[in-house]
Amino acid sequence: MEEIQKDFYCNPGKSEFWIGVRDSLPLIIGVIPFGITCGIMALAAGLTSGETLLMSMFVFAGAAQFIAITMLGAGVSGWGLIVFTTLLINLRHLLMGASLAPYMIRLPIFLQALLSFGLVDETYAIVIDRIQKKGYNVNYQMGANVAFYSFWIVSTAMGVVLSDYISDPLAWGLDFAMPAIFLAMLIPRLVNSTALVVCGVAAVVSVICALYLPGKWYIIVTCLAAILVGGIMEERSTYAQ
User: Fold this and answer.
1) What is the pLDDT of residue 3?
2) Distance (Å, rounded) from C-alpha 219 to C-alpha 168?
3) How far apart are CA 160 and CA 41, in angstroms?
4) Among the listed residues 23, 6, 187, the one whose alpha carbon sits nearest the alpha carbon of residue 107
5) Average pLDDT for the chain
6) In terms of Cα–Cα distance, which of 103, 101, 96 is closest to 122?
7) Distances (CA, A) of 71 to 82, 117, 215
8) pLDDT tens digit string along 144-179?
9) pTM of the entire predicted model
């Protein structure tokens, strides 16, 4: 742990940090329209400019923010219900965190908390890809986190400013930004039969569960199904070797 602390404190601006920032830029381009939409819709739901920016600063979770904004706009006043709903949506973070735990567990507690706050779908995809190629580096993850966090706040602020000019961001097709980002993260990883099968299972399960399960439970069920299938296939592949 002392070596990790020394590496982080003595070299906070080392090259791995900036490599993490650089690798984040292609996905950040797709995040910006999403952040702009978030800012516009938050104001339309009745939040003030300050509340909108504070939400992005302290929540930093696009899907959760959109759900909360939608519920507020629909007149839902019970904060307990809003918090529970957003918590349900973000349960997938438990799965992402679990896969990074073997690497982050060696870090100081405050650093674990800081990196966990910045863990979103995009930063997870970038960091796990880096781990599989070169191993884990705390500065790399910090660079990716800082890049996404900064641009998310800036794009939300842009939405606040542009709200007077864009009344309906969905009419501009800005809602397509997030599906495009997830496709950009997914497609390069479909490099073997295991990945293709897991992707196919996840697609089928998600559609079926979205039709028959209430709320956002289809996300959790799909994640568990994909993990189960992927684990079984990886185990069989290991034994076959």
Assistant:
1) 46
2) 27
3) 9
4) 6
5) 83
6) 96
7) 7, 23, 13
8) 999 999 999 999 999 999 888 877 766 666 666 667
9) 0.77
What 8-state DSSP symbol labels residue 176? G
Position 2 pLDDT exceeds 60: no
More confident residue, 166 or 43: 43
- Write down the domain spans for the chain: 2-174, 190-241
SS (H, E, C) the chain: CHHHHHHHHHCCCCHHHHHHHHHHHHHHHHHHHHHHHHHHHHHHCCCCHHHHHHHHHHCCCHHHHHHHHHHHHCCCCCHHHHHHHHHHHCCHHHHHHHHHHHHHCCCCHHHHHHHHHCCCHHHHHHHHHHHHHHCCCHHHHHHHHHHHHHHHHHHHHHHHHHCCCCCCHHHHCHHHHHHHHHHHHHHHHCCCHHHHHHHHHHHHHHHHHHHHCCCCHHHHHHHHHHHHHHHHHHHHHHHHC
Tens digits of per-residue pLDDT, 67-114?
A: 888 888 888 777 888 888 788 778 778 888 888 999 999 899 999 999
209, 218 Cβ separation under 8 angstroms: yes
